[in-house]
Amino acid sequence: MKIKSNLATIVLSLFVAESLYAGALSKDFKNKESDAVEQSSDMNSITSSDTEAAKKDNNATETSKNNNSTTVTPKKEIKGDPVVAKIGRSKEFRRSDVLKVVKTLPAQMTQGMSEDKLFSMCLDQLVASYLMVEQAKKAGMDKSKDFTERLDNVKNDLLARTFLMKEVAPKAENESALKARYTKYLVEFKKMIETEIFHIMLSSEDDAKAIIARLDKGEDFGKIAKEKSLAPSKDKNGEEGYIVIDVLPSSIKDKLSSLKKGEYTKEALKTDNGYHIFKVGNSRDTSPQKFDEVKDGLKQLIVQEEIVKLVDRLVKQFNVVRFNEDGSPITEKKVEPISAQPIADSTAK
């Protein structure tokens, strides 16, 4: 599939960013629900002896804090919508204003933070933002040409996103469309060979040479990886999983493609991260992923394809004519391809 207008590329990028962010928030919310259920189940599984021990520890702690009481005062229930901050005589922030800010924060930012601390942080943010805005207004910055141009750009960007969400997003949620796109994915799927890769990463060339010398003496690659490697795969004896070598950068591909099963690189490959020694294992053909495994990827594909169709239709509807940078007529129409198969084919099974 090809884009008939560069405009489609721009619009596509802003919408995909929007949808990915929304998807991440939704996924995180679901994960939090799942975690809450698991925690509830774990709490119910605590033995009675553990519960009694916990009670004794809590009582002992409270007693040390206050000899006259061993109970914890529950958080006071807040009624109504009280004022939580005043700025001079003209501005007030209520509890509801702060809670709106709290709701906009990503879960990753608020994880492990107490409600009181989170509320205080968001209130500080509201107050600081208000003060800076007031100072900017006093300085006339809201009337400057630079600000008004940026404001117009923000409004237009938001309006474009809103339009796309309404026009395109529902089509990516249609189950029939998803299954039809999956069928197309199966037809377009191309088998490739993927190879099991093992990896040792080191900080210096001397360290790498010493490891290669040990391998030459017959020492076990996995054992050395667990002992010496700086890569995260050290915990799995250096196993990086199955990888399609042909899609790797040429500097790595050339070294690995010449190796047979069980062989390792005789010279370390230098990168910005350090020095790398690779070993190859078994090879196998890639296989198509199952529908549920690629469903999210299919949604993104449908979004991309629908945006291309939408922009192409609008370009024709509004009779868009594009010119070269110097204003001269375009004699040869430029096209930019969109991959018809962005779903990774090399996923290990």
How are the SSEs placed, and which strands pair?
Layout: E1 2-3, H1 6-44, H2 48-65, E2 83-87, E3 91-94, H3 95-104, H4 107-110, H5 115-138, H6 145-167, H7 169-172, H8 175-188, E4 193-202, H9 205-216, H10 221-228, E5 239-243, H11 250-257, E6 269-271, E7 274-285, H12 291-317, E8 336-337
Helix pairs in contact: 1-6, 1-12, 3-5, 8-12
Describe the structure in your own words.
The protein is an alpha+beta fold. Helix 1 (6-44) crosses helix 6 and helix 1 runs antiparallel to helix 12. The strands form three sheets. It has a four-stranded antiparallel β-sheet with strand order 5-4-7-6, sandwiched between helices. A two-stranded antiparallel sheet has the order 1-8. It is built from twelve helices and eight strands. It folds into three domains: 1-70 and 168-187 and 291-349, no CATH class; 86-167, no CATH class; 192-285, Chitinase A, domain 3 (Roll), CATH 3.10.50.40.
Features:
four-stranded antiparallel sheet, single chain, 8 strands, 3 domains, extended, disordered N terminus, alpha+beta, two-stranded antiparallel ribbon
